[in-house]
Amino acid sequence: MSSGTQVRPRAGADPGTPAARAPRIRGELAARWHRDRVLLVLAVPGVIVLVLFHYLPLLGNVIAFQDYQPFLGISGSDFVGLSNFSVIFDGDPEFLNALVNTLVITMVQVLFVFPLPIALALVLNSMLNERAKRLAQSILYLPHFLSWVIVVALFQQMFGNGGMLNEWLRSADLGTFHIIGVPELFKLLITSQVIWKDTGWSTIIFLAALSKVDLNLYEAAAIDRAGPLRQLWHVTLPAIRPVIVLLLILRLGDSLTVGFEQILLQQGPVGAQASEVLDTYVYNNGIIGGNWGVSAAVGLVKGVVGVVLVLGANRLAHAMGERGVYSK
Fold first, then answer.
1. What three-state secondary structure class fits 7?
2. To 5 degrees, how large is the angle CA 245–CA 246–CA 251?
3. Cβ atoms of residues 80 and 62 within 8 Å
4. pTM > 0.85: yes or no
5. What distance lies between CA 290 and its chain's CA centroid?
6. Which residues contact 247 (CB under 8 A, 6 or more apart)?
7. Mean of all residue pLDDT scores within the chain
8. CA-CA distance, 95 to 299, in Å (whole number)?
9. Beta strand pairing status for 78-79 and 66-67?
10. Mean pLDDT on 271-277
11. Closest CA to 217 of 202, 239, 199
């Protein structure tokens, strides 16, 4: 057989067999590589960073099963099995307090923070004056670029005991209103900070989705005498529903992670009972307290629960006819 002769499946061979499919699959992969080679090369640095700083560190979760001592390292520390998970299985009071606070904050933010960017995006999208729209967007995006240190400092200067609000109330003989440092108001405080800082920035994705809505649908709805509210309910929201479902699934997967830096900066005045969440629990027990194995165990369980929530929510989205994070 000459070197230039192509190898073909023998006559009568089933085209569905692996031997018959292999040449076709190789040809398709080669065509895709030739077509997307520039994009694939550009993606290499990002993949390297992802592997080095996100996937390789996962190997460090082995300390969740060790009595880890930093000066001994992973190889020198003793394995203790599941004993580090006893704070979870036995219901350690500090862990349960952190878990309850985390779930309450997550529930509040899903109910009140998540819908706000959608509503704000709808308002911005309805603005006819493009200059006013761009100005409003610039103002709303600005807080996102401030660090939590600056945001917390601003709120303290505005609403602290010696802040601008209380100084004005004192000057008007109206008494004072304590917000900062009050345990009962802490969850409301951090929720309002998240709303002020990130709501404007979160509208970007929804505005992009709204820009893809076919205007002919609105014209058809108007011909059918549908008012603004009916157009919103029957045209706009169904058009951006896949984006809403996708972001909600991702938010549920991240539900046990709530504002570590934001909460840590304000934890002192209100105390751990009102402010301790799983992230600060891991930090306070691991970095501060030296209980590295326990902290790694809690972090590992938190990550596993997040993955389960994403998979479960994605399966529910498929059952509702949505694509979700990934298709079936």
1. coil
2. 95
3. no
4. no
5. 28
6. 114, 205
7. 84
8. 12
9. antiparallel
10. 87
11. 239
